[in-house]
């Protein structure tokens, strides 16, 4: 949780969002957000972008949910080709 102040922005008002929260929410300068008024709770900001980039936490959850469910075509020890040398 962070505390910030409402400031004037032209004829409107705005809120500065701390960088740590922006990074965690995967938002940046120019990101479009939806503003919702939630009864008895306050204001909720949500990303308006449907195909936004997933955060590391979301990617990890997706990975963990899919782990062990795919069926690879090759066994773990099968060679792809017979290259020998210093490929790395």
Fraction of residues in H or I helices:
10-25%
CATH class term of the domain at 6-66: Mainly Beta
The separation of the N and C termini measures: 45 Å
Judging by the overall fold, what is the CATH architecture of the domain at 6-66?
Answer: Ribbon
- Cα-based radius of gyration, to the nearest Å: 22 Å
The total of beta strands comes to: 4
Would you tell me the structural class of the helices and strands? alpha+beta
**Alpha plus pi helix count:** 2
| Largest pleated sheet | 2 strands, antiparallel
Question: Can you walk me through this structure?
Answer:
The protein has helices at residues 19-24, 56-66; strands spanning 6-9, 12-15, 33-38, 42-47. The chain is of the alpha+beta class. It has a domain at 6-66: Pemi-like Protein 1, Chain: D (Ribbon), CATH 2.10.260. The model has no long low-confidence stretch (mean pLDDT 80).
């Amino acid at each position: 949780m962070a505390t910030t102040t409402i400031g004037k922005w032209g004829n409107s008002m705005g809120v500065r969002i701390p960088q740590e929260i922006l990074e965690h929410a995967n938002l940046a300068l120019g990101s479009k957000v939806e503003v919702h008024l939630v009864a008895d709770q306050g204001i909720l900001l949500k990303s308006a972008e449907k195909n936004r980039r997933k955060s590391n936490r979301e990617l990890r959850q997706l990975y963990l949910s899919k782990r062990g469910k795919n069926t690879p075509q090759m066994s773990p020890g099968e060679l792809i080709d017979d290259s020998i040398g210093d490929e790395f």
